[in-house]
Design brief:
Layout (H helix, E strand, L loop, with lengths): L1 H31 L14 H29 L6 H6 L3 H13 L11 H12 L4 H54 L54
Helix pairs in contact: 1-2, 1-6, 2-6, 4-6, 5-6
Length: about 240
Amino acid sequence: MAANAAASTSLRETAKWLVSGVTATAVAVFAGSSLTRLGSLDFTSQPVRFSIAIAGALLGFAGLGLILARAISVLTVESFSFRHLVSSDEPRLVAIRTRIEKGQTGGMPGNAATFKELLERTDAARRAPDKASRTLMANFDMFRPKVMAQAGFFNVKAKFDQLVWALRCGSPMAIVGFGLFAWAANPPEPKPATAGPGPLVVIGPQEVAATQTARACPPARLRHCPTPTPEPSPLIDK
């Protein structure tokens, strides 16, 4: 019984560390994004970014909510009686009851085959004053704490397994959701306009008045130069 209680406590402490780490990471991602520029987004002018920001925030908080809900279930100390364990139709308790019954086959007080049969025999033994009934009740009082210790541990273990599943699904949801929110809520700064050419000045046609400052030059006369006749080369007598 002490071992089962210690194991349940260990699972709860592990759940605290897991949830603290995941929550701190998601909050850091969310807090790292600037919220001041979210108001500058307009659904009319920037519908895509605005929609992604809202959807990302919802996805991130949904992932965190899934993890926290499972974690609270693990950390909550749930108590139930042996009679509730026997009569419950909750799937988790039914699985726990079936598991313990298989492990206690042949070892139950009064040679009972199931917990339901054991409970019926103990209810009848309470009303009977004979020695066999008192012996059955004494054995049942020793048997019940062991069963409930196992049931308590298996109950915490089942919730812890659900928390592990929530971490595998909720952590990517939170990280992706808050990442999309951070991207969409912080659009890039508008680039400054580059300096272009200055304004063009159109100059209209101008008229230039020509004044005659000199007399017209007479046409040039071409003079004929006769082609010189080449002189004969003298012969050199060696």
